[in-house]
Write a structure and sequence with these properties.
Layout: E1 2-10, E2 13-25, E3 31-40, H1 44-59, E4 77-83, H2 85-96, H3 99-106, H4 116-129, H5 134-140, H6 146-150, H7 159-171, H8 173-188, E5 194-202, E6 212-214, E7 223-233, E8 238-244, H9 250-261, E9 272-274, H10 281-290, E10 294-297, H11 303-306, H12 327-340, E11 344-347, E12 350-365, H13 383-399, H14 406-413, H15 417-424, H16 431-439, H17 447-453, H18 459-470, E13 488-501, H19 503-533, H20 538-551, E14 558-567, E15 571-580, H21 582-588, E16 594-599, H22 607-615, H23 618-630, H24 641-666, H25 674-681, E17 685-690, E18 698-701, H26 706-715, H27 723-729
Parallel strand pairs: 5-9, 9-10
Antiparallel strand pairs: 1-2, 2-3, 4-17, 5-7, 6-7, 7-8, 10-16, 11-12, 12-13, 13-16, 14-15, 17-18
Length: 736
Amino acid sequence: MHLRIVHTRSGGKARRYAQLVESFRRDDGMPAHKIIASLGALSDREIENLRTALRASREGASVVLPAETRAEDWEVRISANRRYLDVAVALAMWRYWKLTELFNRLLPGRTEHVPTSLVVAALVLHRCIAPGSKLYAQRWFPTTALPELLNVDPERFNNSRIHRALEELDHVDGRLQEELPMRYQQRDGAFAALFLDVTDTYFQGRGCELAQRDRTKEGLRNVHKIGIVLLCTERGYPLRWHVVAGKRRDPDCMRAMVAQIERLNWIGQTPLVCDRAMGNGRSVARLLAGGLRFLTAATVLEIGSYTDELPGEAFDELAPEGLERTLEAEVEAAGRAALNAGLEKVDELLYVRDLGVHKRVLKLEREPVETAEFEIDPAAHEGGAAFLALARVFEGRLQRGEVKNQSTLAEREGLSRARVTQILNLLKLDEQLQDELLRGDFGHVPERLLRRAITQTSAAAQRRILEDHADRARPYRKGAKKLRFVRTGRQEAALRLATYFNPKMFVEQRTRAIQRRRKIETWVAALNKQLRLSKRERDAVYLEVVNKLKGNNLLGVYEMRIEKIPFGKGQAHLEVRLCPDEVEWKRRRRFDGFVLLVGHPELPQSAAELARLYRAKEAIEKDFRTIKEAIKLRPVFHHTDPKVRAHVTLCMLALLLERTLEERLHRSSLPMTASACFELLAGCHLNAVRSSPDVLPYHQLTEPTQDQRAILRVLRLNDLIDPEVVQVRIHPRNAG
């Protein structure tokens, strides 16, 4: 006889029972088993005891039983030790925003043993406490008190359920982003400011479809990366986020986000602060068109197109060394120069001047012109046919005298004069071919093919080009692709300008520039030594010096001469001479230490307030540092777009919890980062204690330290360590 253990699963629960089995042979000689007795569910100890007894019976040995263990002889034992206080505080931040209720409403309503909202909660807390891969989250979850706090069986927190939750989270991401701003405003009132910026993250491996090989903002080369656009509040709470392709330029990403938010009711008159990526003319025009109360900084190359009132000449004679021993004196000297130039001192590192409202010519979108009833509609066609239709519209307006000439037409349409001519030239195509093209007889024809066809003078030659293309062209889909002809025009726009000067930034920028000059002059001296000992072509030397100057942003600061210096009998070597252009040097350095703020003309803030508001964009820079370093946004291990987007959403929700925790701590006498807070709380565990072999374990906390008690006191979360409350809130894992 032997003991057989049978495992079954019923109603989603695993069961185990024992059977006493005897082996025998059937009449046909085949071995078989006969069940002597079914023993039901047995503990591990009972199973081991039975196996020992059966083994002793087979071997003819004796079994000696120990004296019976009495309850009073049982030593108190800790059967489990689980991470508690840090996850409990993070969970309290989650519940502060009632996110479980929100996700229960947003996520699909099918019945689950574990609601998706709780899986999302666990994944967000994992990113706050011990960020890692989703596989690591599966191993981490049972080591914490989250199964007890959320009443979730650890075995049900598995890989398939996690990935299903990520897919569902991606489906409701848009609705989540619509809900969050209202929750913030209900709790904290109207927003003081909004901040917009772009960051990136890279992948472990190839990445998702959006990932593209490029250099990251931190300087990692040739890695697969994606971009992330983030809009946050002055508290650092995430409002909107969007995952974009890896190589997409920051201004394009930010303009797309502006287009999404410009008509949202909850923004109102709240100023939107963007960094210099939105300071070029095209982006400023887009911000003006959207009607937002924006504030950005002009790019250095465009400062002169806004104003000539920055007193850069007041700092021409300053040549700081930037050394540790001289830094303080050089910063003070720059500050005195700023005061002498008429700037207002706000603090030791901030001097401002309000420049008022200025006008600058920008390319702004115009209202679309309605197409006359008798005109063909270009938007009803595709490819080259759409532009041919547009050419007929342009020709009709010129013939009817609606516009004086092509220049006037170009200005009204927001196109260049050359582009209007290029479109009108399509009418050189034979008229019968034009009609056939507009009917779609040649399939889809790109505009570039039409431009090639009109270079032929005969209709037959033009037809051959179109018919050759028709043999391999896809079918023409009239009206399938609507073209949007954006009309822009150069118009004067009013903008609010203010400038601020930072003496320390001035010293750093001017020092780096001076060091670059010294570096290039030292390099040229070393090059001349090499040229004395070798023969090189003049063009090769010229190209090498030009590339070196360009790499140090000094091309144009020096006039370069390459001369032949004779030596010996009939011999000569090349020598490079750099003659500095001091006027150009001063022109390039005139904006050192300055930032030109460009904003909506109706911004009511003073120059000092605008400067502080722009410098407060550190809130979003801090958010990016947090999600990259503390929440471990990078590297990404997922390889599909939906799961990558869901991963980013988890990081944003973790960011919300950390910012909420820090905000509450900063309002108290214990300002600290969320990471430091979780580290201090980590030592308080939930212990499962057994005082008797016949009694179920009860839960007891590790004695909290004074620092832990202080944190809970300022957060008003003392109930997390109240023994009676803990016993009520804890759901034993094996119950039910």
